[in-house]
Each structure stands twice: as C-alpha cells, then as structure tokens.
Amino acid sequence: MQKIQRRTALAATAGILIVKPETAFGYQANSKIHVGVIGAGNRGAYDADFFSKDPRAEVAALCDLYPDQLDKAKTKVPAISSAKTYKDYTELLAHPGLDAVQITTPVYLHPEHFTAAVKAGKHIYCEKPAGASVAGVKMTLAAAKAANPKQVIFFGFQQRWSPEYQAAEKILRTGQIGELVLMRSEWMVGGIRPGARPQITPEMEKRAWYPYREKSGDFIVEQDCHGVDVLNWFAQARPVSAIGGGGKGRRKVGNNLDHVNVTYTYPNGLCGYLHGTQLITGWGEVREQFFGETGALTTHRRYYEWHREGRNPERVASKREITIDAIEQFLAHILEGKQKNMAFDACDSTLTSLLGRLAVDTKRVVTWDELMASE
Prior knowledge:
37% of the residues lie in helices and 22% in strands. The protein is of the alpha/beta class and 375 residues long.
C-alpha cells in the first residue's frame, strides 16, 4: 500500500496488460482463485475473511504499509496467516500466480491502486468509493475504460448484489408501484462524539484518513455513496443537478462535515433526497425509499418492504450480510467467464456524492457539468 507521488504512480503503472490473458483469465474446473489484498486494515480483514471462507478462493498475499496491520489481519482471519506479505503494492501485483486483487486502502489511494491493478491484468474487487475527488474519479474512470473486457471489476456497492435489493428493484422495474415520483436515502448514524476530545499523537494523525476530506472525500462521499448509488440504480440515471445544506464544527478531529441534506434532480424532474449525519446517539436509520404512483418500496441491508394501498406492508428479510453476496458473485463471474465492469456505475455514484458535497459547500444549485469542470 505504498504511498507514492502521482508522477511516480503513473510511471510505475504505464503500459498495457503485463500478464498473458490465458494466465489472468483461464481457470481449470478445480482451480482456486488466488487473491491479493492491498490494504489490510479493518475493512481489508473483513472482506478478506469472506474471500478466505469461500472454497473457490485463496488469499495468497497481503500488502500494507504497517506491519502491525498485517499482524492484526492474520490474527483476525487465521485462514490467511500463511499469506505472503508485502509493503509495496507493486510487488504484491507481481506475486506469482495472483489472479485477483482486493483493494481496501484509504479512499484517496483507490485511483492509484485501481489503475495499477488494471494495468497488471488482475480481476479487481475495490471497495467504494471510486476516489476522494473529481480528479481521482477521473483517473479511475480512465483506467476502467482501458481495462481488458475479460477483467472482472467489482466495487463495494454490495446492495447491487443483494437478492432482496434485486427483488425490490424488479418490483419497481415491472411497474408494480407505478411511475417513480420521489426517492429518499437516509444515512443517519453515529460516529462523532461531540463531547470527546481524543488525544491524537503524530503517528495516529499520520495514519488517520477517515476524518479528513482530502483523504476520505468526507462522509458524504465515503459513506453516503452507498445510498446515492441505490438512488442512481433505481432511477437508471445520474442527477443533472443538486442543491443542499449542511454544517460542521462538532468534530474534534479532522475537517469533515457533521450533517448534510441534499436534493438531487434527475432527468424528467425526478427528485432524490439524501439525509446524512454522524451525530446520532441511541438511534439510527440507514435505508432508501422509493415512492410511486400506486405504492412504495423501502430497501435496507436487512430487508425490503413493499407498501401498497389497502394492504399490509410486505417485508422480506435478508438472509445474510450482503457483502457475502457481492464477493460470491465476483468469484462466480471470474470462474464462469462473465464480463462485468462496475467501475462506470461506481464512478457515477462517487461523482453524485461529490456533486452533493459541492452543493453543500456552495449552498446553491450545482450542475453535473459544473462539477466535472471543477477539477
């Protein structure tokens, strides 16, 4: 997960596919997919655990700048304890026999690491979002366009692979709630402790990335991108403009916002609302709602609910943690030779969050074209 300068990153990853396609994309029926993990922190170990539990995969290599992170990951996930370890992600990408990579590094490094993985010819499971800035997302998008069509590319927008989300989307798509007229995403969670004043050492500040906008994109990008991704998916479009408000000042560490309210305008006048905060204590709500002319849908990581006039709501519970669904589908696409590149949707959803962030910052209507011209 070595941090390098942009010029060095581009030089190091210049060129085209550097492994033979038959090596990268050919599998025997009894072959395991060898996965390398770039970024072995909390989320890195979490995703790697699911990969290690799938009999079709083997975590063969781990990379992180910090040895203690590698040790913690191996302790949390004993199945990866024998994986080869690296400090430099370019060395991990050269690990013999590596088929796929999991990118779970700080958000601002996603474009560099994604670009390198594309150039190395690997299948990619990259955590969301696609970057922390417009410039970063553009870098990710350029790499995605240059990818070999046989490279399977997933991003950590797990809702798209949840059977329950897919069932709700099918209800909408088949006209069973009528024409979609309004959407809403709520990310009302905790995380900020307004009264707490933690002691931050220089080493802690060096490692920290989430509280800092330049590294995480702000919570509207790093976290709320999940909700706006579902709005874009169900709307089958990206917004043309946004207006919003928000505030900051409760955080004792970092420079992220505390709360946001954004109204997105989609083609044909469809509106989508995003309500987000990390100030909640003792309560929380993370869900999306879709209102049609004849009914409504609520989607959630643990269920979906179908509301129809004159009938009791129909709730269907999720069977398991939806990250498992995403990782299982990623592996299935590789083994079955199914082509999938989620990077374009991931970039759109990340840019939608960045559009909302710019609208909050400027407190006025901001268009998609203006956002794209801003960096």
